[in-house]
Amino acid sequence: MCGRSAEPHGAWSLSRQESGRIESGRNLAIRADIQDGSVRKAGRAEKSHYGKTSKQTMTDSNDLFSALPLAPKPAAAPVTPKPVAAPAAAPVAEQRNGASTTLKADTGDYDASAIEVLEGLEPVRRRPGMYIGGTDEKALHHLFAEVIDNSMDEAVAGHANFIDVHLDAEGCLSVTDNGRGIPVENHPKFPGKSTLEVIMTILHAGGKFDSKVYETSGGLHGVGVSVVNALSDILEVEVARNRKLYRQRFSRGIPQGGLEELGDVQNRRGTKVKFHPDPEIFGSHAKFEPARLFRMARSKAYLFGGVEIRWSCDPSLIEGTDTPDKAVFHFPGGLKDYLQATMGKEFTVTREIFAGKTEKTGGHGAMEWAVTWYGGDSVVHSYCNTIPTPEGGTHEAGFRIALTKGLKAYAELTQNKRAAIVTTEDVMISAAGMLSVFIREPEFVGQTKDKLATVEAQRLVENALRDPFDHFLADNPQEAHKLLEWVIERADERVRRRKEKEVSRKTAVRKLRLPGKLSDCSQNSAEGAELFIVEGDSAGGSAKQARNRSNQAILPLRGKILNVASAGREKLGANQQIGDLVQALGCGTRSKYREEDLRYERVIVMTDADVDGAHIASLLITFFYQEMPELVRGGHLYLAVPPLYRITQGAKTLYARDDAHRVELMETEFNGRGKIEIGRFKGLGEMMPAQLKETTMDPAKRTLLKVAIDEIDFEGTREAVDNLMGTKADARFRFIQERAVFAENLDI
């Protein structure tokens, strides 16, 4: 039985990592990682009780070895080793900043037995975030990416021409190809163990370390499919090889019996992997989202025109959606077709898309590209060996440089001196492009391969695009002239903005002139400056008293702001609150957004810890996603996490962010002696300034959620925002109907 109950996924997701385990929200249309204390990267968060912290600095006064004389060593005499006995526990006095303190006595619980050695696939199950980036929806679908990438490697190598993807009613996902099939004979280093079992159960076992087997491949470390095995409660592999069919089953990385030979087969070869994500890792309600799998499978077909991908899904999983239950993807036009489908009816500067590909013997250095310019914000999607690289890397750098050099060279050829001011930013600010490269043994940043680090990739892309782009411009002089003028206009606008006096903080305050509006910080530079967008004048008053005036600014908003996803441009421009916010930030919106003009390093949305506060935060996130996506991509947008409860027992006071945290603190931090008082905050305005500072605004003690855009499933991101925040009420109603059964702890 492969069936599992499933939980839906909403528009936003705030993933929290504490004590080594990630609790995640739903649909990663927009993802946020928790930041504790001073902001730090996801994956390194620690449990926070909004308590006080202290820092210890090593000085001569607390260096235990500073008083020892530096005497020369006597000649060492042979010493017979003796068993080492555990020292007796005793408190140690320490001198710190002139005051004497006592360190905790050694209780003996940290000894040799406390050092664990994890073997096999146990590290994967213990720390899945190290291998797939977490346990949220994005990580869940990364399992599918790991499996289909192996099939794509077979196709790119010329050994397979179709891949079949099927999602059944029980939530099991199958990926089948007609490649060579995983070897099944016993492995020479593991007598009595089939190669199939070695690949599935041992980390860093695979055929991609040596380029003799795969000239280019997405897999590098022999980790991917074994990680999928470790994180699946059911996994079954079928291999058709040498006209015989083999099968082996696994559960949570452990073989459930040996390799079975099922008999002879005709007209079949390749590998089939069928698996179900383990609810112990991903939660009892976790499930694959058909629409997301559909898009991921289709994107793979765009990336390699020589493969046909067949999609099928149980009809019961897609009722009431636009996702088909069956489809066949085959795109000989490759990335050009992909970009045309993505752009739709958008205005483009040139009629033709600049697209092309280069073939290389063996595959190393081969690449494909497609780029056009339009009236929106820059969007570039890149891939290496069919692996998405949402954070870009060296291949994207080469892509940008090649286009910039090509345009400037054409300007010199046509004696257009106005192009002298053009920079890479001007060329790419309105570009929509896709780039796919194939490189032997690429270097990625991290196991999830979000960013390419291979230095050679930049040179390969520059050299590959130089001549084709020169020919594209020379063969289409009218289109080239339009493109050059378009880019020069962007450059003129950038220079004009730079020459204009930057909106000073005093000017911003003077222009707003409304009581309770922007209370700016005193520093002039953006580095380290923070803008808190707070809910209401009451909360704004408390925040102003709690802030650090040197680098923290406060902008109160009255009520719920305009839903920009459903409002027209005229209504948006006439809205006073949005106008105040845009003016205070100073960086412009959409294609006029300029990172260098942003007046604050962090923009922090601070709303009440209730359903109304969540709604206001959603409206603000929608605004930034639609009007200032580069602000979000630049890592500037955060959500504050104010407490919901204040728990007091005697002189001890702690704050809980929600009901679950309150229960946890009651069980772990408070004993049975003395009366425990629990108070629930109705809103930020009810909190004393000192409380607000201690729990929500002090960088040393606060918790922040960093908002990020899921660049891999960019179509799903856009669709989720449109459905939940757009004008189509039926889409929201359908979303609620499909997921109402999973709603818990409603605050109504």
Task: Summarize this structure briefly.
With 748 residues, the chain is α+β, with helices and mostly antiparallel strands. 32% of the residues lie in helices and 21% in strands. A hairpin with a 2-residue loop joins strand 1 and strand 2 (21-23).
What would you note in describing this structure?
The protein has 748 residues and is α+β, with helices and mostly antiparallel strands. It contains 22 helices and 29 strands. Strands 6, 7, 10, 11, 12, 13, 14, 15 and 16 form a nine-stranded mixed β-sheet that branches. Strands 2-1-3-29-25-24-22-23 form an eight-stranded mixed β-sheet, sandwiched between helices. β17 (354-358) and β18 (367-373) form a beta hairpin. α3 (137-156) crosses α5 (224-230). The longest helix has 23 residues, at 477-499. The two termini are 38 Å apart.
- The helix-and-strand class reads alpha+beta
Distance between the termini: 38 Å
**Separate helix tally:** 22
* Tally of DSSP β-strands: 29
Largest sheet: 9 strands, mixed
The residue fraction in helices comes out at 25-40%
The poorly predicted ranges are 3-76, 218-222, 501-506, 510-516
Average pLDDT, to the nearest integer?
80
Outline type: globular
Strand content is 15-25%
Query: What Rg do the Cα atoms give?
Result: 29 Å
Keywords:
748 residues, alpha+beta, nine-stranded mixed sheet, globular, disordered N terminus
